[in-house]
Amino acid sequence: MTPDYSREVGIPRVAAIEYPYGRPVGEVNDVEGQRKVLLEALSVLEKAQAPGHVFDLPFTWPEDPKNTKWHPPKISPIVKLQLEEIKRAGAEARQKP
Amino acid sequence: MAVSEKIVDGFHFMPPSLRAWLSKDIPKEAFHGYIPWTPLKRPLKKTTFSLMTSAGISMKSDPPFDVKREIREPTWGDPTSRNIPRDASQEDIDVNHLHINTDYIKEDMNVILPLTRFKEFEEEGVIGRLAPTCYSFYGFQLNPKELLDQTMPGVASRMHRENVEAVLLTPA
User: Which residue has the higher pLDDT, B28 or B38?
Assistant: First the structure.
């Protein structure tokens, strides 16, 4: 889900998927969709021949990120604590070309 | 779901400000440290699996993950783990996690702890078997020392006792 992190802590095999936080296997009660994701992830075990390989799984989540309700109902304690820093990081990023 | 060539963007669902803030802590250079490596010993259809997720899932019969302390101490995350028996039902589990919407897991835990799917794979001969025990811990660990030094050795010992050969880790 965040392969950037996984790369940096040295995970033996990563099956990266662009699905929302909290639902890496798929949608609720979507048996076939979940099976496809898991079978692809299992295939990574057979394909990976050396440590540190990241395999990008070929699935696309059907909702736009703005409509994907992965967020907790209340702002998390750490985000609440760091909110000003987070806003500042966002503002700096927007200023970069 | 559509299938296509894809480069996964791990921050795809994240608001831009949060993405920018979190990205600052990810080193730009590639990882050059030691990575553990255990080759797959036998085909999947003969391999014993376990599952482990950072989703904060617990059995209702066990204490829940301690999110109350995290609310008081925002840089602390519960460093313990919980065993989830392979035959745990949806009604048996509780989910406590302050960084995601847990409603989906409470409706169908297979979205992150796919016990039912792996039991189907076992039945169909896709995998050898699913071990008796699967695991959850809590995925907010700014300092993972206690998780790694105190909690995970016990998890690893139990996996050894149950002859686990491969583990699917699903992050929250």
Answer: B38
